[in-house]
Amino acid sequence: MRWDAQALNAQAVDAEALNAETPRTGTQAPDGQTAPLPAPALLPLAGLVRSVTTPEFAGVTFHEVTAKSVLNKVAAGSRMPFEWTINPYRGCSHACVYCFARKTHTYLDFDAGLDFDSQVVVKVNAAEVLRRELAKPSWQRHQVALGTNTDPYQRAEGRYQLMPGIIRALADSGTPLSILTKGTLLARDIPLLKHAATQVPVGVGISLAMTDEQLSEAVEPGTPGPRARLKLISRLREAGLPCGVMAMPILPWLSDSDEALDSLFGSLAAAGATGVSAGALYLKPGTREWFMQWIAREHPQLAGKYRRLYGGGSYASKEYRAWLAGRVRFFKARHGFIGSTGFSHEDIDQDPRDEEARYPAGSLPGSARIRHGRGTAGSVGHSGTGESAAEPVAAQPTLF
Ligand code: SF4
To answer: For the chain, which has fewer Cβ within 10 Å, the N-terminal or C-terminal residue?
Structure first.
């Protein structure tokens, strides 16, 4: 068993084997305190084999579990463009302050804040169980999406290496797949994905909503930064794989200026992204509290504005969303993007107890279903040419 020497209460280190993807900062609470090393987990996690810590993942505990099943059926009536998902990890050390999968961690008796970032459940037998499930005569080979709830290429994947087995199992069974991630560790699996694309439709999406490195480091501290993700998009395109981008969330007053949007869409076009969907920050319960604490600490002058803009709900005002959709359309056109693509791992929860597990109408302005074709899944028309629109720059609504 991996990390045998690092089980809690026996914290030896296997640094060489750890993921090379280094986070820019450690897990931080919104009050600015670095997360303390967690106490040994004594939670009644189903299938828990053991809990592991290591200094290379300071403050993070991995709970290795054996899963009975890894294929999740999306709730009936969902607006998501796929029926099945796999989440090899629960919780995510990418630690995005705005992550709206946070609430799902409470179903495991963890909290939606620091625990989501630092108590990561790892389904160590995911590939093996998946092969069994895919071999059932009843399996109809519908598309399976990875990255719908938490990031499958978060840092732990460098160590646990669950994704290669999952990709192989899906492709070998003739099941189309799509992946959404912020993790540059995906580059490791490009050859495998290229091969899989000769067997089944394969879609790849990168989540990137800002080019400001400093802002990214503050709001998504465990992720590879924007430059690294842009490089990943280029590598995917060079490998002949399509690469859509989820430009969500656009953060009011922080990443929604014309300069920021121009830089974002221009950079995505230059990197060769095949499509992009963009939308405003969505603050569902569990995320809202965490994000508002962060805003109050990092940008206290914006705290009141955010409160008024969201009015205690999950969505920015209709007026703001309409304004942002217009700016997005303008800058997409300027940089040659047509239409939109994809889905977001921030945009769906898998737990049936969550009534908001359904893709919330209007939460993804302009988004469209992924349309698969062999080797082109997830792509939409990006002409790559800067179709310059002459629309004058609109002023932000004055409401806020
Ligand atoms: S938004 Fe995605 S990458 Fe960020 S913490 Fe959530 S699941 Fe991880």
So the answer is: N
Question: 34-88: per-residue pLDDT in tens?
Answer: 444 444 444 578 899 999 999 889 899 999 999 999 999 998 888 788 999 999 9
Res 352: pLDDT: 31
pLDDT (tens digit per residue) in 119-156: 999 999 999 999 999 999 999 999 999 999 999 999 99
| C-alpha span between 94 and 116 (Å, rounded) | 10
Amino acid at 71: L
Summarize pLDDT for 360-397 with one digit per residue, the tens: 222 222 232 222 222 223 322 222 222 223 333 344 43
Cβ–Cβ < 8 Å for 147, 181: yes
Q: Torsion angle, CA of 64/65/71/73, rounded to 10 degrees?
A: -110
The encoded tokens of residue 41 equal 């987990």
Cβ–ligand 1 distance for 96 under 6 Å, the answer yes
152 Cα: distance to centroid of ligand 1 (angstroms): 9
Tell me, what amino acid is at 357? A
Average pLDDT over residues 305-320: 96
Encode 337-394 in three state secondary structure. ECCCCCCCCCCCCCCCCCHHHCCCCCCCCCCCCCCCCCCCCCCCCECCCCCCCCCCCC
CA dihedral 108, 110, 112, 116 (to 10 degrees): -90
Strands (E), the chain: 48-53, 61-65, 72-73, 84-86, 89-90, 119-123, 144-146, 177-181, 202-207, 244-250, 275-280
